[in-house]
Amino acid sequence: MDNLFRKEVVEDRLSQIGLPMRITSVWMHLFTGAFVTFILLIALVIANGTYARKASVQGFLLPDSGIVKVSSPREGRVIESHINEGQQVNEGDLLFVIDVGAESIGGNTIDLTYENLTQRKSLIEQEILLLKEIGEADAVRLEQNIELKEQEIGFATQESEAIETNLELLQRIVLRHEDLSSRQLSPVDTREEAEKDLIEARLQAIGHGRYLVTLRSELDQLRTEQRVLRDRQASEKSNLLRELSSLNQQILELDNQRAILVRAPKTGIVTRQTKSVGAVVDAEDVLLSIVPDGALLEAYLYLPSKDAGFVSIGTEILIRYDAYPYQKFGLYKAFVSTISQAAVTSAELPIAVSSTTDELLFVVTARLEKAFVLVAGEERPLQVGTKFQADLVLEERMIWEWLLGPLRRLRASA
Known about the structure:
The protein has helices at 7-17, 26-48, 107-182, 188-258, 305-308, 326-329, 399-413; strands spanning 50-63, 68-71, 76-81, 88-89, 94-99, 259-263, 268-271, 280-281, 286-292, 297-304, 316-321, 332-339, 361-368, 372-375, 378-381, 387-398. It is an alpha+beta fold. Helix 3 (107-182) packs antiparallel against helix 4.
């Protein structure tokens, strides 16, 4: 090329173009270093970082032994309530009395029969009281008559003793007159007069003895009448009590048809009472629920089927209680303990869950790390039915796997 152009021409051209110069500065070096560092950090995060897919679901706190629901066995109307919300009850305690007579077939007939039996029962009870009053009056009368007769017999006995004494005296007088008469010291008329008095005294003693026997016979009759009266009253009372017992049994049988006694199936705390006195209930209507004694609270979560496959035993859950805002009271941990093997609809859940779709749900139970919430430094126990929102980590993947996921799916589909 040097042969093609003259040396002067080449030098002239070079003088016009000028020589190359370095224009870099300190800031350029800093920017370049920062940019390279940023690229390296991104590469490091992509190579070693993980991506977690989470699911937010709602749930409730329920006892581990379940809530015992108490339902009405038949349709009717609540006429008695013996419990209040939060009350402690023992197994067998009476909770409600439900009148089913008016709601059952032939209810009017049952009510009329019940009223008739009740009236008969009232009449028999009045008759028993009247029999008792009459019996007491007759007993008093007989007792008084017996006392009077005993007094009369007592006086008659004293009179009889006086007559016997007089008779002995007259006998001695007659004997003395006979002795005097045999010695002719006493006139015959006097002796005969004494014998006449003796005969009259003997007749009087005989008559008085007959009277005393009559009094004693009357006393025996009164005592016999007293025993017969007691036996008759006892028999009449026994018959009335037997009839009253029969009526009570019939009334009890009608009560079983008219009214149902609802008792506590378990010992525990009454919660979610839905019915009160006067409420009309249908068969299988839930009246209340009972939280059994000794039950531990567990978190019940309801996962859609698209998320349930990624949950396993021991998965950590972060809970936000609706009643205690997490911004102030924080998050609480729980760990998955069981996962249902079959999905259910929202209508089959123990507590109603709001759902915008009819998607099937899996029930997941979790063990609470703490069964209380710290409020102003005080441990406040959690209550059954407390609603919460929970976050679960369903899966973790490397970021580069997540970035290459679409390419893998595209390759797999091809």
